[in-house]
Specification:
homodimer, 231 residues, mainly alpha, Arc Repressor Mutant, subunit A, Tetracycline Repressor, domain 2, 2 domains, 10 helices, disordered C terminus, DNA-binding
DNA sequence: GTCTATATTTTGATAGAC
DNA sequence: GTCTATCAAAATATAGAC
């Protein structure tokens, strides 16, 4: 008989590496939930580990520590759902469907997925306080903005008007407005009616198409990801 | 001779109550700075007290503890500078001065006053995680929005168009956009050009005046401060 | 690779001197 | 009213068993 160190590559269960990778993912899931609920400083590694169904030792076996775990989360999970959702919308009818879809996304995010905006706020605060990690966060945000820019470009194209100059400015405004309104609606739903985002987007896009995209920012060019002024 | 317990009401130096009030204010200042820099959970009462030039005991003599100190800060310092600035702008020329002034405020806030948006993020996260304090935060935000609404009303009035229906929606959008853009510019100044806010505001106001304020939200009415959906 | 037990440090909060 | 000294709890991180 061969020892069990030679052949068991078949899916008898899980490879050692696969098992470790799964543990890593479960720990990242638990970390996302716990950091969102308690904050970076307020969450303990013990709570994260237990919430994932593991011990502290398992966490330290997979990550260097609390900070490294948070940074791994920042790198792997800091992309913005507004860009993902916009890409799903991409290819739809060129009428108001897109704005309506984003409006619905905002209400769902504010009312149901409490963790999302909290975790993003934690990412932002951590990056502001630890400038060496800001580049990573900026990268993720930039990717999301670029994805959204592409969607908006095809959208305006479908409406038959200019798609050139300051589209990145438009997507920046959309992202800023999205997060700002999500936060305000969590403060008080009465502040942000269910159709406020959709209506504002319609206003922005109308102005964009009517003036040939003349609204925000043809003066100063937008770089893909500029330098940070922190460190 | 009269004992020194009877007459010394004259401004020999500071009354006992005045001295205590001054200590309170200094502690609140230090708390604002420290909570902004380290976060609620990350800041220690020792650091706050020392930063104010007092001992831990003095802090506990003036506040019930860390949580009570933070809540006192939330109640006394959570108003929004965008509303204050708008009121300063109030009464100016009815041309683009207002939008330009707010645009300048955004760049200054993002680039120079790091603590402001960080502390607001801490207020938001604390209130999201401690729903019993959300009403207080919502009150401050509502006051700021109402102040801004008044300024916008007089502004549009000066431009000669409708000032009635959804002005609160407009100020809500302005506030959301302000904070969203401040956050994005701190992530990467290249994301938010210096005139993006001003241009977007001009777009919104133009649309507002041209359509007779038809843009956001004539369908759902906005209550002054509605109920929170948390507790 | 994961768990249990523990060393070390730090924190919020309190007691008593002045 | 403020300071100094200190307690008790909780946290990060590590060491060694399995």
């Amino acid at each position: 008989m061969a020892t069990d160190e030679e052949a068991p590559q078949r899916p008898k269960r899980l490879t050692r590496a696969e098992s470790k990778a799964r543990t890593r993912e479960l720990l990242l899931d638990a970390a996302a939930e716990t950091f969102a609920r308690k904050g970076y400083a307020g969450a303990s590694v013990e709570e994260i580990a237990e919430s994932a169904g593991f011990s502290i030792g398992a966490l330290y076996s997979n990550f260097g520590g609390k900070q490294e775990l948070f940074l791994a989360l920042l790198e792997s999970r800091a992309s913005d759902r507004i860009a993902e959702a916009a890409q799903l919308i991409d290819g739809r009818q060129p009428d108001g469907t897109a704005a309506a879809g984003l409006g619905k996304l905002l209400i769902e995010t504010a009312d149901e997925d409490v963790a999302f905006e909290s975790l993003r706020a934690e990412f932002w605060l951590y990056a502001v306080r630890n400038p060496e990690s800001m580049a990573t966060f900026a990268e993720r945000v930039g990717e999301s903005r670029d994805a959204l820019t592409g969607v908006i470009a095809r959208l305006l194209e479908g409406q038959g008007r200019g798609t050139d100059y300051p589209l990145q400015s438009i997507s920046t405004v959309v992202i800023a407005l999205f997060h700002g309104l999500v936060q305000l609606r969590r403060i008080d739903p009465g502040f942000v009616s269910e159709d406020l985002f959709e209506r504002t987007l319609a206003c922005l896009f109308t102005e964009a198409t009517m003036t040939g995209v003349q609204l925000p920012g043809p003066s100063a060019e937008q770089s893909g990801s500029g330098e940070n002024a922190d460190d």
